[in-house]
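RING-type domain-containing protein
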Amino acid sequence: TGMTSEYQKPLPNFTHTLYPTSSTDRNTCAICLVDITERTDTRILARCNHQFHITCIDTWCKVYMKMICPYCRSHIPH
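Predicted structure tokens:
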């Protein structure tokens, strides 16, 4: 279960802190569409800076076997 270390390595863990923003999409996981609340453990993608719940992005990469951002489709480097 879980992603292989090859897929997990480029996806660092990040504890989300809420900042004032006019954009609501920064605080919503684009995979499950559930709010990313303060102190939620997430992964942030280095190339595009999109954030997702850890279980959501890990499952996404494992199921689709592609290292692409589900929000903007940019490549996630290995």
